[in-house]
Amino acid sequence: MDILSLFVILPVLTVIALGFTKDLKQARILSMIGGLVQLGMAINLLFSYFRERAVNDSIMLFTRDVVWFEQFNIHYNIGVDGISVALILLTSIIVLAGVFISWKMEELPKEFFISLIVLSTGVYGFFISIDLFTMFVFYEIAVIPMYLLIGIWGSGPKEYSAMKLTLMLMGASAVLMVGILGIYFNSNADGGALTFNILEIAKVNIPFEAQKLFFPLTFIGFAILGALFPFHTWSPDGHASAPTAVSMLHAGVLMKLGGYGIFRVAMYLLPEGAIEWSWFFIILSAIGVIYGAFAALRQTDLKYINAYASVSHLGMVSFALLMLNKTAWNGAILQSLSHGFMTALFFALIGMIYGRTHTRDITKLGGLLKVIPFISVIYVVAGMALLGLPGFSGFVAEMNIFMGAFQHDSMFYRIVTIISISAIVVTAVYVLRVVGIMLMGPVKNEAYTKLAGVTWYERTGILLLLIPIIGIGVAPLWISNMIMESIQPFIQGVL
């Protein structure tokens, strides 16, 4: 069995085993074991990648190619580079943290963990796929469980939020399918056979008119999942209604499929289309960065604050990718990783606060630092990471993005970069606003004077997410170098 297929097979086996569990204890222990094994596999993949990369300069490593539908040249074609490995590691950590944060899930626990693991299966499959059709199939596997996870286990207007999310993402899938088929039917422009293989299509000179037509469709199809303005509205409502672990996976992992797809498919296979359309989508991305920050500033619900912060920070990812240079692309991938860990940590903390106070309204909270100091201190640390303080992953990512953006001589690029940078100031304002209102001062409600302490499983989930945030911020070179060497063949294809 190859090392990559295990990332699909093991979750499937875990789901089958969960089907035979009888109670909450068995379901959560089995889910924890499955998550631990996935994390162990991701760490093993990381070290295996370093060893293989030292002697192998292929674009993708650990490749495997099995024919699925020979008539249409559809293959189960998989492989990874440094970017895929980093995102697989991100996924494994957040999945395990989500299991710990959901340790006390009592409503249909078996079905909940099954849905969560099916989602992660789709994400793993997406990150290892080289074949466009296979990638799209895994994309759908990752998206579909969100409807059930929000509609069944969510809160508030959960049916509305689940349906809105599903319709928006299904619409994105339809647009994306048109883009993928457009690429497929132009993949024989140089006289070869039609193919879905990304590496083979990259060698083909797809006509400029086709690129100009299908790039915006492919870009938008992926970017909707990345909450591109103005297609972002599904995300805050989805986050607000989703249970904690689902919000963690939704923002921390699922939304990363958007940026990864833009990088791996839209940019790499349609480079002339990317250059032609970049100015338009840069404007949308810059608006999203600023809009998300100001929208977060106006919210009082903790989940909506974090959801709009995600719109802003994921806008940075698409903004950086559209800059079409190596430094900005490195920043985009680092931002995806950093945002994944940070937003998952925030949603975990918000879930813990809500579970104890039964409110997410910051105006009804106050003085929590005195009552639940561990959660409060970690919230402050996460806030410092979010606004890009040195020593945290956010600083490393944003500095690469802004340095890459400023490499352009055009005044247009400089202006939109300055506008986007100003979002950091707004981020600092809403982070400090929440800290001041929710954590500082006297306790506003007598019922909040004695709240439950942090359990071992909550503490474990928090530390799983906090360690990478600090680790990347303090020692970023190992992962930055791994990403940079993986970007090189792709940036050459674009430029």
UniProtKB/TrEMBL annotation:
Residues 130-416 form the NADH:quinone oxidoreductase/Mrp antiporter transmembrane domain. It comes from the Bacteria. The chain crosses the membrane at residues 29-47, 82-103, 112-130, 136-153, 165-185, 213-232, 253-271, 277-297, 304-324, 336-355, 367-392, 412-440, 461-479. It is found in: Endomembrane system; Membrane. InterPro entries: NADH_Q_OxRdtase_chainM/4 (IPR010227), NADH_UbQ_OxRdtase (IPR003918), ND/Mrp_TM (IPR001750). GO terms for molecular function: NADH dehydrogenase (ubiquinone) activity; NADH dehydrogenase activity; ubiquinone binding. Keywords: Membrane, Transmembrane, Transmembrane helix. It holds the Pfam family Proton_antipo_M. The keyword Transport does not apply. GO terms for biological process: ATP synthesis coupled electron transport; electron transport coupled proton transport. PANTHER family: NADH-UBIQUINONE OXIDOREDUCTASE CHAIN 4, PROTON-TRANSLOCATING NADH-QUINONE OXIDOREDUCTASE, CHAIN M. Belongs to the complex I subunit 4 family. This is NADH-quinone oxidoreductase subunit M. The lineage of its organism: Bacteria, Pseudomonadati, Bacteroidota, Flavobacteriia, Flavobacteriales.
